[in-house]
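Weekly puzzle thread! Below is a chain. First person to post its structure in token form gets bragging rights.
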Amino acid sequence: MTQQRDPVPAPAALAPAPAATTRPEEPAPGRHRRRSYRDRLTAPLPGVRAVTRLAREAGALRPGTEARRDVPLLPCAPAPLPPAGPGVLALTWAGHASWILRIGGLTVLTDPVWSHRILGTPPRVTPVGVPWASLPPVDAVVISHNHYDHLDAPTLRRLPRTTPVLVPAGLGRWFRRRRFTRVQELDWWQGREIGGVTFDFVPAHHWSRRGLLDTCRTLWGGWVLTDPQGRKVHFAGDTGYGHWFTEIGRRHPGIDLTLMPIGAYAPRWWLRDVHCDPEEAVAACADLGARRMAPMHWATFLLSAEPVLEPLTRVRAAWGRTGRPREDLWDLPVGGSRTL
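Winning reply:
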């Protein structure tokens, strides 16, 4: 049973940030100079006591032998990308938080991770859903935050350095050091336009770090992509559950599809503030006012202690309890595609 908790009050940190007043095709790269984004947290990061408890509970962040027995049953069905012309909105799940979105005639990658193994994480338990060589030319990349399972340098090195990249505030320097020339840094509620598609950066509750001394030095969040026909896709990135989903839905009404994380949630005492569980993901979809939901952030890397198939069974049950149409839960296999 899902633990209940009191709602988190809305802090000043989630007050509206200044919105971009223009959306030029190639705006000058934004450069954010803040030294920390800790004030954007709505709950403190784990302290010494929590870390000590985690160390005592050996294996608390990895599924045990019994929990891993269903790895061969994880849904994985690589297939060719469906055709997608300028008026088609299509998505394909490559695994974890990596999606291939064809929207408004563009091909957009979210948090692209094509590596078999990433730093500090066991290797993939399912293959990448789409071979890199099978991708069409990439028109833009969006990044939710800088953790290694969402910002993968070996994958990004495969891209032309002229690829437009939209990133959270403070993260542009990482890309410019790697000679990317079209980098946009955005704060929450800011947006840019590329080829007629609008990219708006929206809040999430997570955190950032890649080294020992850079905790929360760069921002984190999700994205709302809007095509020229007004169809909207919300990519949640990595996030806990909270009031920000209602605010996103208020500012971006009529979301057609949300890409929502459902895995890496156990133990809850450790992960509840930064990772939704399946029931919270379904609640977040309702808060957003989104018509459809596609689960992600599971069935790829074993990052936490829940049994490997549990996220899928729980999200299906939670969706069923809402009475919403079953066809609006896009529970795709890795490599699976759907067209809107």
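Puzzle host: Confirmed. Bonus trivia for everyone else. The first helix runs from residue 48 to 56.
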